[in-house]
Amino acid sequence: MNKINKEKFTALSFFLSPMLLMVVLFYLIPLIMTVYISFTQMRNWNVERYLKDFVGLYNYERLFYMFQHDPTFKAVLLTTIVFVGITLIINVFGGLALALATFFISEKPASSFRLLWLLPRMSPIAVYSLVWYYFFHGSEIGTLNSILMKLGVISQPIPWGQTVPWGAWSIIIFVNGLVGVSFGMIVFTSALNQIPRELVIAARVDGASAWEISRKILIPLTKWHFLYVLTWQFLSLLTTYPHLFLLVQWDLVNRDYGTTLALYVFNTAFGRGEQDQGLAAAAAVILSIIGVIGGFVTLKVLQFEKMMKRPRGDF
Amino acid sequence: MKDVETRPSRYEWVIILAILFASLPLILGFSLLVLSSFSKEMVTNLDLKSFHFTLENWINVFQGKLATTGGIKTNILKVTFHTLVVALGVSGVVTFISALAGYSLSRIDFKGRKHMMILLLILHAFPGVALIVGVYLLYRLTFPQSPDLIRLYSFFYVILARAALEIPMSVWLMKGFFDTIPWEFEWSGIIDGASRIKVWWKIMLPLIKPGILAVALFAFLAGWQDIIYVRTFLIDQTLATFIEANIEAEYTHMPLIAAAGTLYLLPTIIFFLTAQQILLQGYSGGIKG
């Protein structure tokens, strides 16, 4: 027995230690460091000077003060709420719509469309941003402006991204929405493919339309996936920012109304001009707390634990 | 099998047209970028009069001539090489670590296994932005003194740090691939007295080659497309930071940036054409956004 235990231990440390090392090095230690920085006055990455400059809850008080009085920070929070809310709806329902639509057409165009909608997610972020930079550009070279001018809808080019708040919001929601839709699309597509064909065929024989089949059979049977996409996308939208970064950096969208809290953290820590890592870290800690609570709620709601069965092959 | 009974063919073209209409901005945006890379001026205003076919941009990209006049140069091959190093590095690290961890989570029953899997899910949901401040402090504290080493170290660090972001989901993906292999395969090996490590290497790895390929592909794309980590940690330029910097530079000839963007898009297009099945099936895994 003892020998087996020892063997198992050797094997386990061989298989798991690289992963654990990475988790400790790039999740655990950085997390502790972020919390620590949030209690210091760290700025401009002047580690020598500020690393031991402990200021207690000062950064959190500043955040609270900004929350009450700073119009820029208020704009960032409002943008975060609007952005997460609307993009979430677009991602979930857009994904569902695409999955259903491709469910009802022949396999060949269906998989071409699915592939096409993966393009935003697969293309390098810099190229993807470049595409929308030109599409929404505020002058005549912007594709959207030139289409509308050719159609005679507008006579002057409109600086979409600088029209606050809705112009800027529309762009960031549109750009990130396209990335998120593919996630919902793939999850819902695999869910739809698991539904027994007989149900659909029987309904079809009884004369049900595609719309009725979707509403009465397909959607109710994908409830779990719906919740999964909803909560998972909520967490992702709250915390990811790379797709917004360049749009703001290139002044395509207004700085205040194109910045979500996650991007605010990044720009405050690494952006141009005054870098204030203490403040950024404090905001990051608050985001993490929301993220971790959200993560646990997701696990509970979706009962992921039931998916984790004991391995069959072990003895 | 897609059977005729599940769908009426008379509505099919309506649905196809509807999706096509919804996809229009996507198709338009990407095609205009590629088209502009072969033109003397940007054709983003949909005016085909501004399209004059030329290969000049591509020649200039490879020669690194950024401005139409003046002598500003960048060695784009070197920049591409840097991007490739990061992408291959991330791909290698992620594949190796998740092939190891995925096996043990799939096949070995041990105390804390369930907790480890939950932890990985939570880590995947964990805000990357909360980490990057701490990850950068760790980077600063472990900086080597010698200036030559710093450049090398920045590659090493960016690869590991970026790979760490992909690991939670890749381990889950890899575990899923191991789960599909019937355990009789390794059982015979274990009964013959082989160790788990030997079984993993000799029997399991050859069986899950498709899984390894999928995980490696996704990790490659993740490293290839990254901008935040390379921008924050890497001292040398990659294609992402090259494009980032040149949009704002006034001397830049824009169709040349379109060509650089298209060059940057190439691996994606290649994977699009060659690995469609892997992409469609596996992409539900390691993704966010």
The helical percent of chain A reads over 70%
- Low-confidence segments of chain A, given as residue ranges, are none
Which class best fits the helix and strand makeup of chain A?
mainly alpha
Instruction: Name the chain pair whose interface involves the most residues.
Output: A-B, 120 and 110 residues
| Helix percentage of chain B | over 70%
Rg from alpha-carbon coordinates of chain A: 24 Å
Q: Oligomeric state of the chains?
A: heterodimer
Mean pLDDT of chain A: 87
* Strand-residue proportion of chain B: under 5%
How many strand units of chain B? 0
Measured distance between first and last alpha carbons of chain A: 12 Å
The biggest sheet of chain A amounts to:
none
N-to-C terminal Cα separation of chain B, in Å? 32 Å
How many strand segments of chain A? Answer: 0
Overall body shape of chain A: flat
The helix tally of chain A amounts to 14
Q: How big a fraction of the residues of chain A is strand? A: under 5%
What class, by secondary structure content of chain B? mainly alpha
The parts of chain B where pLDDT drops under 50 for at least 5 residues are 1-5, 285-289
Shape of chain B: globular
Number of contiguous helices of chain B: 13
Descriptive overview:
The complex is a heterodimer of chains A (315) and B (289). With 315 residues, chain A is mostly helical. Chain A is built from 14 helices and no strands. Chain A is flat and about 75 Å long. Chain B is mainly alpha-helical. Chain B has helices at 9-36, 56-63, 76-107, 113-125, 128-141, 147-179, 184-191, 196-207, 209-225, 228-233, 239-248, 254-274, 276-282. The model of chain B is unreliable at 1-5 and 285-289 (pLDDT under 50). The chains are: A mainly alpha (315), B mainly alpha (289). The interface between A and B is large, with 120 and 110 residues.
